[in-house]
């Protein structure tokens, strides 16, 4: 039966705010009856779907689900599951961005001589006509130089800010996976909720001397390896920047070296699951940077001319 008012009916307040009939109030009574326990069948289907989505709203829950699914589907032990998921995530998320960043840096390095020549010409013109030019003309000249540089960046798709895209993806990924593994190992951390027990099989999912992935490394082998791998990555990046003709920022390099050393005592206090992830991620970065370094070295190595035949 249609409950809408007919055409021409006086839409008074009583008509608009008419109470629903008994058959209309029954579904609401069934859903909101406080005497009945709230179950998935007593709630509308959309509420249950929202509850399922909210369980996986946090990025750490996605990592947890990925590792659990991989562990169940492949039958790998937990230590091999962590290594496999780490390599897969790095290969899918950061490796393509690293290749694009390398190409942008190469294009930016090829434009650097032209930009420096323009900057030198701009400074000479500014110093020569500084007394004759008005402040407005000086600002216009500076604006023209910036416009030309921005136009070149746009044409060659090598804006300096785009070269910083990789850290904005790699660092959040590293933090998210670390928090997910901390949660799976039930490792207490300040200001974060901690499960009562680790994931099933986590305490026996290791190998060799690190059988329990929820405890620290007693041999300190993994913490020292993590710090060593980070220092290798820093030196490889520094060597590639020098080969590309970019200036070496000594302060920034010293800062990253300090982080590579400070991560060693931090790694001694976290579970083996985190140590395994950090070591695998650092080793992936080392292999990636070695590949880029070999490619750059072969590109800049002069080819010897063929010998004349007798």
UniProtKB/TrEMBL annotation:
It is found in: Membrane. Its main location: membrane. Signal peptide: none annotated. Keywords: Membrane, Transmembrane, Transmembrane helix. Residues 78-290 form the Membrane insertase YidC/Oxa/ALB C-terminal domain. The chain crosses the membrane at residues 76-99, 250-270. One of its GO terms (cellular component) is mitochondrial inner membrane. Pfam families: 60KD_IMP. One of its GO terms (biological process) is protein insertion into mitochondrial inner membrane from matrix. GO terms for molecular function: membrane insertase activity. It is a multi-pass membrane protein. Belongs to the OXA1/ALB3/YidC family. This is Membrane insertase YidC/Oxa/ALB C-terminal domain-containing protein. It comes from Powellomyces hirtus. The lineage of its organism: Eukaryota, Fungi, Fungi incertae sedis, Chytridiomycota, Chytridiomycota incertae sedis.
């Amino acid at each position: 039966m249609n409950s809408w008012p007919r055409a021409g009916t006086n839409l008074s307040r009583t008509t608009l705010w008419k109470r629903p009939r008994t058959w209309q109030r029954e579904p609401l009574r069934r859903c909101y009856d406080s005497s009945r326990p709230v179950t998935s069948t007593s709630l509308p289907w959309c509420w249950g779907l929202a509850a399922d989505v909210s369980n996986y709203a946090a990025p750490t829950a996605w990592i947890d689900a990925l590792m659990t699914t991989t562990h169940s589907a492949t039958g790998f032990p937990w230590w091999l599951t962590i290594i496999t998921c780490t390599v897969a995530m790095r290969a899918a998320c950061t490796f393509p961005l690293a290749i694009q960043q390398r190409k942008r840096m190469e294009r930016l390095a090829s434009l650097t001589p032209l930009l420096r020549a323009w900057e030198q010409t701009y400074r000479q013109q500014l110093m020569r006509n500084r007394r004759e030019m008005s402040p407005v003309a000086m600002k216009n000249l500076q604006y023209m130089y910036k416009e030309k540089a921005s136009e070149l960046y746009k044409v060659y798709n090598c804006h300096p800010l785009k070269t910083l895209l990789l850290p904005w993806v790699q660092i959040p990924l590293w933090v998210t996976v670390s928090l997910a593994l901390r949660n799976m190992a039930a490792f207490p951390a300040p200001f974060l909720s901690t499960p009562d027990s680790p994931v099933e099989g986590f305490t026996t999912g290791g190998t060799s001397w690190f059988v329990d992935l929820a405890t620290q490394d007693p041999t300190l082998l993994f913490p020292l390896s993590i710090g060593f791998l980070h220092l290798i990555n820093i030196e490889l990046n520094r060597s590639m920047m020098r080969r590309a003709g970019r200036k070496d920022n000594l302060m920034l390099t010293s800062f990253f070296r300090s982080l590579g050393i400070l991560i060693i005592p931090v790694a001694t206090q976290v579970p083996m699951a985190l140590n395994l992830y950090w070591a695998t991620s650092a080793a992936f970065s080392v292999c990636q940077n070695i590949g880029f370094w070999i490619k750059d070295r072969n590109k800049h190595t002069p080819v010897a001319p063929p010998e004349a035949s007798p």
